[in-house]
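Fold this sequence, please.
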Amino acid sequence: MKKYIIYIGILISGLLLGYVLFGSNSTPDDLHNHELSEVENQQWTCSMHPQILKSETGNCPICGMGLIPTETSIDGLEANQFKMSENALALANIKTTVISSISNEISSLMLSGKIKENEKTNSIQTAHFGGRIEKLFVNSTGEKVYQGQLLALIYSPQLVTAQKELLTALESRTDDSSLYNAVRNKLKLWKLSNTQINKIENSKSVITNFPIYANVNGIVTLKMVEEGSHIKEGQGLFTIANLSTVWADFDAYEKQLSLIKEGDEISITTNANPNKQIKAKISFIDPVLNTSTRTVIVRAELRNNKGALKPGMFVKGTLSSKVSSSVHKAIILIPKTAVLWTGKRSVIYVKKLGDASIFEMREVILGNEIGENYVIIAGLENGEEIVTNGTFTVDAAAQLQGKKSMMNKTGGKVLTGHENHIGMRKIENTEENIAPNRIKVATKFQAQLNEVFKNYMLVKDALANDNHSTAKKSANELLKALQKVDMKLLTDTKSHNLWMAFLNEMNTSTKNISATNSIKNQRAQFILLSTSIEKSIAMFGINQKVYHQFCPMANNDKGAFWLSTEEEILNPYFGASMLKCGTIEAVLE
């Protein structure tokens, strides 16, 4: 019995010893190598300046604070990819579209324009002799006149003298017919008709106030004289337009010209009657490009017997054009809403195949504009899925995570990419960052954008005061200010498309703020609103100094910024709990 107990004891001891020696697959060297690998891959950043990334510990080169370890990525994303939460995607109303190529099929090209007078039918009613206007029978522009209608009575000393000469020559016509004929021809050169001349001869009296009759039918579009005006021979009295035919003048951009030719059919609608289509053909394409708007006039001539088409009316034209490609038999079209512009670069965001929450930025080369789409020359493949709504929100997420973005083509964690924005001056060295890409726009547009910014500040102040109801009301006022911005003041394609993208993002985030009573959700949307507001100001300017302020603890310790007109920190993300948390990182000017 004792022998068996000894054998069992030896067996148990052997098992324990084997486990100690061979039970673990990780050797001390393996553990050391694993720890070393983690250390080698570790990066360090500054809690106050998260744009700083170092491969080893030390002090921040900006503020001198000790660097802290960055979070280690365990999601397996590539360097240029980033992830958005399902909640963020839903709040920002992100929409994507799978791109498919199309054959060389007919595509609609939309053009905008105005109705104008047909210059070929315009007529100027002139005075063929000098004098003084005694009476006007047409007193305002817009009056309709008919050929032969009495327009004015003119006293002309020249004409009175000539009439007296005619009556004298008439008495001696039998003796000297040449003088009579000469005087009569002089009156004809002043556009007196035979009927008028015969009336003078028959009445044997001089007409002191001579009548002026309309030469054509039409509408008086310009009145150049008043009663009592003294006029010279050949001076214009009225401009009369015959509106039985009018021109529809459209603005076509350079990129659209290859799709338009004379003789193409165009379908035209007016704002006054959008349900009625007028079919016409392109009759003229201006050979000279307008260098300020980068457009060319494309014209169609329209019948207007009923006068329904009035000069100055806005019209839209739909032109059917065959899209062609000399390189490929098929082309790729993407919506304009998918494209972000920055300087010479055009960027889009592509969704990773098989994962609805992972995106990456892609630079593309654009071709012609086809309606509300762009032709893609390079940078995108058939079957890829791109962001078509909420593009700026996705761009903001890329900047927050230090990925390649619209304003940061190289990537690297930055303060949402905005210290490199145009129009900014860095606080650290107080050196101005001159804005080569800032777009020059009308002062009136900048003033309207300033009103938008003032309402943004009301939202910011309400959040800083922890007042969700005031934030909601201020957001509604901000929406009204956005609606008042006149996009017609942006005369070129680049600025117009940029503003449309900015406006879409501002409207989305502002509506979300106005639709909730949760201050937490309002603050989440305020991050997105601040991004689009800052980009708008940086791109167009508002002629005012604006401070870019940053809190590294906001947005779940990812950091978030806001804008202010004052240097004082009033944190909209924490309110009273941490009202003074934040720093001024840059200045927009």
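The two ends are 96 Å apart (CA to CA). The CA atoms of residues 472 and 515 lie 7 Å apart.
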